Sequence to fold (253 residues):
Amino acid sequence: MAAAGQRRPSLRAVAPVHLLLLMIVVSFGKAMASGTRSSLSIIAFSCDLVAYSFSFSDRFREGSQAAAVGGAPTWTTALQQHVAYFDTDNDGIVTYSETEAGLRRIGLGAATATAAAALINGVIGPKTRPDNATTSRMDIYIENIQKGIHGSDTGSYDAQGRFVQAKFDEIFIKYAKAEPNALNQTELEEMRHANRGSNDYSGWAASKAEWDMLYSLAKDKDGFLQKDTARAVYDGSLFVTLAQKNGGSSGGN
Fold:
């Protein structure tokens, strides 16, 4: 009987090994009762079966160990963790419906979530799509999410999607004037305009949409976006907090 927490081997996976061993025993029995030439053939065939049975057993053991370790993917960059909240089935791919449902969980209305999800997946999906992918072009592949980074941003993600603390701190050092560790709406607008790249219209639009959404969902009662709150959005932990506040599930990963 398997110990608690230990994965029990599948009978369908183990049975072929036992069957092969039985065939080997039968083969040697036939070899003993046959002539020399047929004996050699049967013995050679039996040796092949032995080799295959051990190979199969090794592959099964490796597969069982991998399954025991399995579960949700482990994402290493802050940007991957940010996006993984929306991956509710933990398959490494965020579909349009997962994005839409995730946005509703964190507090967006149905119409806004539908439009935002279409824009997010429509723009980022093709950029992150592997060459050999067969799924929808709107699917976002988390392992390639760094390819979806837009221009005219704060630089708080580097080119690989890692969080850059110094760049994040710079936002509040430069623009938090009314409160030292918080931004009001006017200060957010000033920050966004200062980060605009020349003729980067898509980057301007993406930056405005992101910060406007964050401010709308996470500002405090005095109309300030606190530094700790803004920091939590970069690794996706804010999404979990907002979903729980709205009575929803905590999302993926």
About this structure: The chain has a mean pLDDT of 81. The beta strands are 93-94, 140-141, 182-183, 225-226. The longest strand covers residues 93-94.
